[in-house]
Amino acid sequence: xxxxxxxxxxxxxxxxxxxxxxxxxxxxxxxxxxxxxxxxxxxxxxxxxxxxxxxxxxxxxxxxxxxxxxxxxxxxxxxxxxxxxxxxxxxxxxxxxxxxxxxxxxx
Length: 107
Prior knowledge:
By secondary structure, this protein is mainly alpha-helical. Helices cover 53% and strands 10% of the residues. The chain has four helices and three strands; from the N terminus they run ααβαββα. It has a three-stranded antiparallel β-sheet with strand order 1-3-2, with helices on one face. The longest helix has 21 residues, at 12-32. It is globular. 21% of the residues are buried.
């Protein structure tokens, strides 16, 4: 009940805005590294996929992220990212750094 109370207090629009703020640096970095990203009007800020660049395997990327305590799901040739209210800018930085480190290792 406490959690539902918080969700009602914050409101869906504020939660989506917070997730959008978290997602922006992820999306920007992913595009710079060659990941495929849907246009903003075709994805949610709280749940989106990043299609891996050609030749990048999702398993090793997921492992590199796991070593940074970043949890993503593999969906075919993409990873599913789902920022939420419990995530912070530090979590975003860990995700982006893990992606960059892994991208350099396969380049």
